[in-house]
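If you are new to this repository, start here. Below is one unmodified record pulled from the training split, so you can see the exact layout before writing a loader.
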Amino acid sequence: MNNVFKSKIILGSANFEQIYGIKKNTIKRKEIKKLFNLAIQNKINTIDTSSGYNQSEKIIGSLGKSNFKIISKIPKIPKDVTKKNIKKWIKDKAKNSLKNLKVRKFDYLLLQDSKSLLGRNGDEIYKSIKIIKKLGLTKKIGISIYDFNKLGKILNKFSFDLVQAPLSILDQRLLKTGWLNKLKNKKIKVHARSIFLQGILLLKYNQLPRKLKYLKKNWIIWEKWLKKNKLTPLQACVSFICNQNNLDGVVMGYNNKDQLDQILNQKNIKNKLILPKINIKNMNFIDPRKWSNL
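And here is the target side for that same chain:
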């Protein structure tokens, strides 16, 4: 594993002492501490979290937050929050997160529900997060996105420092839409997430959750390609991401510190990959938000 890629690794915290994802992943506090120690030893110095991740921020705050840069998120604003109360709601959320994290300011504060910027309260939401930056509670601001349909409209209207988006061998929309290069040209940093698609890309077909068995044909192509190229799923996924030089960061979650160790010790990273043609027509199968409805 080269040092350039190591420096881009961001610790995901969505499963800190809570069940997360279709595979019901979780990591306990004792193991989180080991994960942090291994990260620090390898100069991995950023954590991605959210006030919506249960106790995640409090756990980070109690376990050595001073060693890490912090990315956190403002969750979706509840419908009962009126326009005149949006600024207060966002400010209170941000201050409460800082208190839980035991830090004075975020390195990045993101809006988790970026589509709300195009709604009737969009201007007010944007003004509110800009105020957080003006108050010195965050160095920079950004958005977390799930699809790219509205990204152009958002960035034509509002200015951000960072976009966090999904990217994996199964979900290459960030590349195929041209948005990775467009964002770099706009001097906006890009962080990828879901590079293992909540871990399902590391599974054999017979290990997939029942809801995703529809992907059988795609998995046959994927497994044949891995065998032909003499790659493990982990080597393939990491090689794919390592080849994306325009990425500024990669958010990855772990169930234990050994999983991070395994990534850091990856050998046989391929500089050039001729990827299999996996055409998934139903996008719900690569959007974890939709899996509960399948």
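Two things worth knowing about this chain: The radius of gyration is 19 Å. The domain at 3-293 is CATH 3.20.20.100 (TIM Barrel).
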